[in-house]
Design goal:
The protein is mainly α. 66% of the residues lie in helices and 0% in strands.
């Protein structure tokens, strides 16, 4: 008979840090929800793709900062299983 107080290894929920969750949200918002941003970015920086990617990285970092500041800790704890 198994002890119900011990969790099986298969029942273990994966853990994710709040920073990684914020980074995933920022990446989703920038990469998928901003097709207009990408269109304007490549039109403005046409022929200078490295500069465009550096600018996009800076925008992603700013978005990560805003998401991290505005994140609700209680909601993150629930969604991360904490």
């Amino acid at each position: 008979m198994t002890d119900p107080t011990q969790a099986s290894p298969l029942a273990h929920r994966p853990e994710l840090s709040p920073f990684v969750l914020n980074a995933l949200v920022a990446t989703y918002l920038l990469a998928i929800c901003n097709s207009t941003f990408w269109g304007h970015l490549f039109r403005i920086f046409e022929g200078r793709s490295v500069t465009a990617l550096v600018f996009a990285g800076a925008v992603w970092a700013l978005m990560l900062l805003v998401v991290s500041v505005l994140a609700l800790r209680r909601a993150q704890n629930w969604s991360l299983g904490g």
